[in-house]
């Protein structure tokens, strides 16, 4: 009976996972079709559309590089300024702490479309043209809450151990305390934040749609515009390239920090109560 | 001790947080206030934003059944997505909570992996699956049934949204489930409570914080999404964010587009406040029953 329930729950999990993976598998497989239009299941197997993509669609490749550059810029900016802000708000008696905490979390409550409209109007008022910088600023805003939250969580975790205080009492200067104690302890939070910021930027279509110009287009924007008028396997080929890149990101994330940890899920199944019982 | 205290001054702290505050003020707060101001201006054919102050943009929205219909559709899609992700996600979270070791790592990995794939691509996968030549349509054909229109309908949007946001519901519930002391569940069973009764009276109330965190997140993310509804729904079934996008980018009516954006923010926040209120009321009641024992 127990094993029956177990089987049932596993079957359920498998069905849900098939649902989650279905559209991605469909994209990957239909990029291999020999037909001139997208069809699933694919007919025949060919890498022709990848050749087509690299030979005849340089705009996709340049958009890919732009997307990577913007995502790296966003990750670096968010991690540096996010870590500093988290440190300040957690450790220092900064006036107006509640306001700043709320401010840095608020992009989560503002629809990306509204932020896009806001930046479009503001950039045109200031006369700022579309560039990787104007994109990085927009992505900085939407990714910042995650970075602050992740670093803050790490700071809170080791606060009770008083290691910083111990180091300071033993004569370390504040700069030494930061480099030798604090930084190594919050590094995993910063890494997770950087990966999150990269992914947020790389995936963003909505904000970028308002900021881009005809020459400066990130890959999601290029793809979105191309999809409106074309139904050929080039779309699925470039999409598959993006999926493979995401896969690389995922493996990197798993290696560096453990993907579960990055999203706030513990890998092992030990609750605090469990440990108490074990004593 | 004294040294430690003296080094953490508010001037240093202020300097550390200042860059972020500056960027946020310049590229978040001011632009949003600018949107609010734009929404209170008239539309001019020549310059886009006129110089007359007016609340006419809001009146236009609230008087037109078409626009109110779009607002209602947006709310409806968000509610459906929240409920369906909850129904699908809670059992999945229970499965995950009951799994250990390597299987658990793999299950979590595959739950989160799709989140790293661009939403544009995931939506496009559904376009292929639901299209008139797609595998689902073929299945209907083979079975000799009339193929229903699936793509560019509200159903397609619901499906895509559930797909995108399921993990956002599962994770907080999983977190709550892991904090539940297994002994309490065992105690309920020992005291003779059936499986369903234990779930309803013990497990569900204990995991309510996770459920509400997930629900709030899924609801507000769905209400404000743009990518999934515009690819899977298209112009035939627009939602609020598409309406705002169209007004700003295609019609070039910035005041009206800004007003729609502001309405979207106000409506989602209001619904979340109501939701928080309902939740607080319910929690008060359950606490009441516990103490009245």
UniProtKB/TrEMBL annotation, chain A:
**In what way does this protein cross or attach to the membrane?**
Multi-pass membrane protein
* InterPro entries the UniProt entry points to: MetI-like, MetI-like_sf
Q: State the Gene3D superfamilies in the record.
A: MetI-like
Q: What is its main location?
A: membrane
The listed locations are: Cell inner membrane; Cell membrane
Keywords per UniProt: Cell inner membrane, Cell membrane, Membrane, Transmembrane, Transmembrane helix, Transport
Per the database record, which ranges form the ABC transmembrane type-1 domain? 64-253
Q: Where is the signal peptide?
A: none
Kindly list the residue ranges recorded as spanning the membrane. Answer: 12-40, 60-87, 99-120, 126-148, 190-213, 233-253
Give the record's GO CC terms: plasma membrane
Q: CDD domains per the record?
A: TM_PBP2 (cd06261)
Q: Say if the entry is tagged with keyword DNA repair.
A: no
Under Pfam families, the record lists:
BPD_transp_1
- BP-aspect Gene Ontology terms: transmembrane transport
Q: Which domain of life is it from?
A: Bacteria
Note the PANTHER family from the entry.
INNER MEMBRANE ABC TRANSPORTER PERMEASE PROTEIN YDCV
Q: Which family does it belong to?
A: Belongs to the binding-protein-dependent transport system permease family.
How is this protein named in the record? Putative spermidine/putrescine transport system permease protein
Q: Which organism is it from?
A: Alicyclobacillus macrosporangiidus
UniProtKB/TrEMBL annotation, chain B:
Which PROSITE patterns does the record match to this protein?
A: ABC_TM1 (PS50928)
Domain ABC transmembrane type-1, chain residue ranges per copy: 71-275
Family of this protein:
Belongs to the binding-protein-dependent transport system permease family. CysTW subfamily.
Where found, per UniProt?
Answer: Cell membrane
For this UniProt record, the keywords arranged alphabetically read as follows: Cell membrane, Membrane, Transmembrane, Transmembrane helix, Transport
Where is the chain membrane-spanning? 12-37, 75-99, 106-129, 149-171, 202-227, 256-278
Q: What Gene Ontology biological process does one annotation of this record name?
A: transmembrane transport
Q: Does the keyword Transmembrane helix apply?
A: yes
Its primary localisation, in coarse terms, equals: membrane
This one is known as Putative spermidine/putrescine transport system permease protein
Pfam families assigned to the protein according to its UniProt record, in alphabetical order: BPD_transp_1
Q: Which organism is it from?
A: Alicyclobacillus macrosporangiidus
What cellular component terms from Gene Ontology apply here?
plasma membrane
Record-linked SUPFAM superfamilies: MetI-like (SSF161098)
InterPro entries with a match to the protein in the record = MetI-like, MetI-like_sf
Give the membrane topology: Multi-pass membrane protein
């Amino acid at each position: 009976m127990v094993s029956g329930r177990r089987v049932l729950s596993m079957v359920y999990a498998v069905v849900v996972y098939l649902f989650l993976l279905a559209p991605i598998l469909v994209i990957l497989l239909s990029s291999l079709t020999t037909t001139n239009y997208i069809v699933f299941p694919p007919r025949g197997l060919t890498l022709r559309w990848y050749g087509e993509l690299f030979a005849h669609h340089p705009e996709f490749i340049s958009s890919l590089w732009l997307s990577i550059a913007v995502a790296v810029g966003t990750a670096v900016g968010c991690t540096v300024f996010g870590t500093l802000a988290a440190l300040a708000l957690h450790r220092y008696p900064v006036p107006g702490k509640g306001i700043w905490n709320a401010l840095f979390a608020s992009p989560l409550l503002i629809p990306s479309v509204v932020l896009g409209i806001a930046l479009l109007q503001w950039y045109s008022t200031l006369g700022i043209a579309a560039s990787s910088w104007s994109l990085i600023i927009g992505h900085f805003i939407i990714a910042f809450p995650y970075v602050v939250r992740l670093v803050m969580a790490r700071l809170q975790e080791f606060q009770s151990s008083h290691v910083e205080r111990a180091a300071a009492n033993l004569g370390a200067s504040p700069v030494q305390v930061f480099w030798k104690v604090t930084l190594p302890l919050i590094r995993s939070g910063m890494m997770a934040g950087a990966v999150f910021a990269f992914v947020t930027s790389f995936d963003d279509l909505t904000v970028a749609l308002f900021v881009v110009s005809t020459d400066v287009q990130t890959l999601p924007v290029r793809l979105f515009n191309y999809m409106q008028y074309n139904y050929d396997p080039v779309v699925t080929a470039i999409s598959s390239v993006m999926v493979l890149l995401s896969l690389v990101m995922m493996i990197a994330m798993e290696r560096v920090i453990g993907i579960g940890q990055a999203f706030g899920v513990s890998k092992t199944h030990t609750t605090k109560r469990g440990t108490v019982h074990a004593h | 001790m004294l040294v430690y205290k003296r080094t953490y001054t508010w001037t240093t702290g202020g300097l550390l947080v200042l860059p972020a505050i500056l960027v946020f003020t310049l590229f978040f707060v001011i632009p949003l206030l600018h949107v609010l101001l734009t929404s209170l201006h008239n539309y001019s054919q020549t310059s886009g934003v006129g110089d007359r102050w007016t609340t006419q943009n809001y009146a236009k929205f609230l008087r037109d059944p078409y626009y109110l219909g779009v607002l209602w559709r947006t709310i409806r899609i968000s509610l459906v997505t929240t409920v369906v992700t909850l129904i699908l996600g809670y059992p999945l979270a229970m499965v995950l909570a009951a799994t250990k070791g390597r299987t658990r790592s793999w299950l979590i990995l595959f739950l989160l992996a799709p989140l790293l794939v661009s939403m544009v691509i995931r939506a496009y996968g559904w376009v292929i699956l639901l299209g008139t030549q797609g595998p689902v349509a073929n299945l209907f054909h083979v079975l000799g049934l009339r193929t229903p229109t699936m793509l560019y309908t509200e159903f397609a949007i619901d499906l895509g949204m559930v797909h995108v946001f399921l993990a956002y519901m599962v994770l907080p519930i999983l977190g709550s489930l892991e904090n539940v002391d297994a002994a309490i569940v065992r105690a309920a069973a020992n005291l003779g409570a059936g499986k369903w009764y234990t779930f309803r009276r013990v497990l569900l109330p204990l995991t309510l914080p996770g459920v509400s965190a997930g629900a709030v997140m899924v609801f507000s993310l769905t209400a404000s999404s743009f990518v999934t509804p515009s690819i899977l729904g298209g112009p035939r079934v627009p939602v609020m964010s598409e309406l705002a996008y169209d007004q700003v980018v295609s019609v070039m009516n910035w005041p009206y587009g800004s007003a729609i954006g502001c309405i979207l923010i106000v409506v989602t926040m209001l619904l979340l406040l109501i939701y928080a209120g309902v939740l607080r009321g319910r929690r008060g009641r359950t606490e009441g029953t516990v103490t009245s024992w």
